[in-house]
Specification:
heterodimer; A: about 325 residues; mainly alpha; MetI-like fold; 14 helices; about 0% strand; B: alpha+beta; 2 domains; four-stranded antiparallel β-sheet; two-stranded antiparallel sheet; 6 strands; about 60% helix; elongated
Chain lengths: ~325, ~375
């Protein structure tokens, strides 16, 4: 148990380190933008009719703590970020955490649902294709996985939009019906949300599914030919029971390990898909912040949160793997033996 | 076995054993049908991208716009209709009119009597190809203009734009892949060759960058481009960003390979002979996995192209008058376009084919470069 705790602690430290490096990158990006928060805020006030002097800008700078050196500001930022406080958005003058809370959870929910969907499809399909000798099935699946790369999610979203507009006259976009958009969360709103969310979930899951099928297939074909499977067959086990009890369990390890990168891939496309499908969540907020309002504080917070969820998932899968996979467990517990 | 069949067999064996690495890879690659098909398609598309100004009838920027045919539907050349047969393919003349009959809205009317005949090698918009100033295009029509894929809202020819966009995407991809490749070689090379603490620190850094979703990071970097920059400056900046973020995956592979290779005897021999680290990396280690690097480059190419498309699509990447698929798709989510002008989507087909061709060739190369692939399956 001691070794296990130490392993978990080590992984947690590694995850924290990664997050700190990422936060440094994100923070530097935010800082590199010409002009700082004080200037932008007062430039805005200027357009509202108040008279602004250089002294006012300096005062605002001191109020926001922008006169302190870069490293100090980074440390302050990251200290607050780990407590879930990202400060105020420069442009919107709103607390970022409040602005994001709901929207980020929706994004995370959609992305995780897409991930689950991808593996719900990929596991059985990948296993079947690895064990079947059917040429037609295998070639079809190969084409699907190639298309997963060549037709990225946002192009697929465009195509589905085009198709649904031409055929149904309805573009199937948005996350809520118009009358539900500003209502507080309730049973009806949740149902309405699910009625709209299936399409983004499917679209975001598309590439992930294609990749996952390929991974599962490759892992399974490696395992199926091994001697322990033949031995199990000789003992009279066959069909799904055989696959589930022997090769599938071996193949599971690398799959669990790659979940973090699958989530990365989904997040990658989330903003563009969100823009196309006019989803009102963190992804489209990110585009809004970067492409239109140039709101680096908000953008930095979103990128940090996205990366944070990937790091968290990586940590969780590492621990899960140590619990599920006896080989990994043994290598941790066994120490240097 | 008779002697007559043994002789050529012996000869082919000899050819096999004396073949260079490149010949072996090519021989294995040729056997893979889908990879060969991919290669043919890819070569065609690259050539048509390079010769786009000649192959397409009009200038892809506003200079080549057709004022009388805005948002025009694709015109398909035909050789006969109810007015009779013609040896030369032709399209119809269209006119924009409005009157009380059309409720004073502009409508496009097709005049089937007035035929526009296709011409071969006509003089048209001037362009520059490989430093030469030319005016000759592959085809055109005798009167007015022809738009095989229709036109966009400004009257620009979508056919011309598509082929120029292929050219742009290939250029962006090449610059991006090249930069990523150089960075990956340097960082992965140092990391893998020295190992130890240098390796750990560099790996930590590489892994952290890999955890950040790439496209949001691209977006954050692309947001730096000042709006007053010229289209060309933007183009180079965007390509550079793609390269600056694309290196981690490749760097990791270089490192893993170097870590296994550096303990081989030939490296020890070189080191004992007094060769410097840079010399060993360049002359001994790099050639040992050139083929893997080439394969990785081909495979990472489509990612660059697609990232650029995504960036331009949301308005953070390239801008008019540079043509790329992303630029061309910028306005397609409007209901108006979705309902009435579906030909805006024609370029997407070309890009899917382009990426698929890259993937097929990359996969084929990977199998061909693997010296053990013959023994498998």
């Amino acid at each position: 148990m001691y070794q296990f705790t130490r392993f978990v602690a080590m992984r947690a430290v590694m995850a924290m380190l990664t997050l700190i490096i990422v936060s440094f990158i994100v923070f530097s990006l935010m800082e590199m933008v010409p002009g700082d928060c004080a200037e932008r805020y007062l430039a805005f006030k200027n357009t509202q009719g108040s008279m602004i002097s250089i002294a006012d800008i300096e005062a605002e700078r001191i109020r926001l703590g922008l006169d302190k050196p870069f490293m100090v500001r980074w440390l302050v930022w990251i200290w607050h970020a780990f407590q879930g406080d990202f400060g105020e958005s420069c442009i919107l003058r709103l607390n970022i955490s409040q602005l994001l809370s709901d929207k980020f959870l929706i994004s995370l929910g959609i992305a995780l649902a897409a991930l689950v969907l991808a593996y719900l499809i990929a596991l059985p399909v990948g296993i079947i294709s690895a064990t079947s000798k059917s040429k037609v099935l295998n070639n079809t699946l190969r084409l699907v996985s190639y298309l997963g790369l060549a037709l990225p999610n946002f192009l697929l979203a465009l195509m589905i939009m085009l198709f649904s507009t031409v055929v149904y006259g309805n573009s199937l976009t948005g996350l809520f019906s118009p009358q539900m958009r500003d209502a507080p969360w309730s049973w009806d709103k949740a149902m309405d949300f699910l009625g709209h969310a299936w399409l983004p979930v499917f679209i975001l899951g598309w590439s992930a599914t294609a990749f996952a099928i390929q991974t599962v297939r490759a892992l399974m074909s490696d395992e199926v030919g091994k001697l322990y499977v033949t031995a199990a067959k000789a003992r009279g086990i066959s069909g799904w029971r055989l696959l589930r009890r022997y090769p599938a369990r071996h193949a599971l390890g690398p799959i669990i390990n790659s979940l973090g990168f699958d989530l990365n891939r989904i997040f990658n496309e989330l903003p563009v898909v969100a823009l196309i499908l006019t989803l009102t969540e963190a992804g489209s907020l990110l585009i809004e912040a970067l492409a239109r309002s140039n709101d680096q504080q908000l953008a930095g917070a979103i990128i940090f949160l996205l990366t944070g969820s990937i790091v968290a998932l990586n940590f969780a899968t590492d621990v899960l793997l140590a619990i599920v996979d006896p080989r990994v467990r043994h290598s941790i517990m066994g120490g240097g033996k | 076995m008779s002697k007559t069949s043994a002789a050529p067999d012996h000869k082919s064996k000899e050819a096999y054993f004396t073949a260079t690495q490149g010949q072996l890879i090519w021989a294995r690659f040729k056997r893979n049908k889908s990879a060969m098909a991919g290669l043919v398609v890819l070569a065609t598309l690259i050539l048509s991208g390079l010769f786009a100004p000649f192959l397409t009838p009009y200038d892809p920027t506003v200079a080549g716009r057709d004022m009388s045919y805005l948002n025009g539907a694709p015109q398909i050349p035909r050789m006969w209709d109810e007015n009779g047969f013609s040896w030369r393919p032709f399209v119809y003349t269209t006119k924009r009119t409005r009157s009380i009959k059309t409720n004073f809205r502009w409508v496009t009317v097709v005049d089937k009597k007035a035929r526009r005949y296709l011409t071969f090698l006509p003089k048209g918009d001037p362009y520059k190809l490989f430093g030469m100033h030319l005016r000759t295009h592959l085809f055109g029509v005798d009167k007015g203009k022809i738009h095989l894929f229709g036109t966009d809202a400004a009257g620009k020819d979508i056919f011309s734009r598509t082929f120029h966009a292929i050219n742009t995407s290939l250029a962006v991809g090449t610059i991006g892949v090249f930069l990523a490749f150089v960075l990956a070689l340097i960082i992965g090379g140092i990391s893998g060759f020295y190992g130890g603490i240098t390796d750990s620190v560099l790996q930590m850094l590489t892994d952290s960058i890999r955890t950040v979703p790439a496209i949001p990071l691209f977006m954050a970097l692309a947001a730096f481009v000042p709006p007053e920059w010229s289209a060309e400056a933007r183009f180079f900046f965007i390509s550079t960003i793609l390269g600056l973020i694309g290196w981690p995956t490749l760097a990791r592979r270089v490192r893993t390979h170097l870590l296994t290779e550096r303990n081989q005897d030939y490296v020890l021999a070189a080191r004992l002979s007094g060769a410097s680290a840079a010399h060993i990396i360049r002359r001994h280690l790099l050639p040992s996995f050139t083929s893997y690097i080439i394969v990785d480059l081909v495979i990472s190419f489509p990612y660059m192209v697609l990232s650029e498309t995504a960036l331009s699509f949301i308005g953070l990447g390239l801008k008019d008058p540079v043509n790329s698929l992303g630029v061309m798709l910028q306005n397609v989510t409007k209901a108006d376009v979705l309902l009435n002008y579906q030909w805006y989507f024609i370029p997407v087909i070309f890009f899917i084919v382009l990426v698929l061709a890259f993937v097929f060739v990359g996969d084929g190369l990977r199998d061909a470069a693997d010296p053990y692939s013959d023994n498998k399956s």
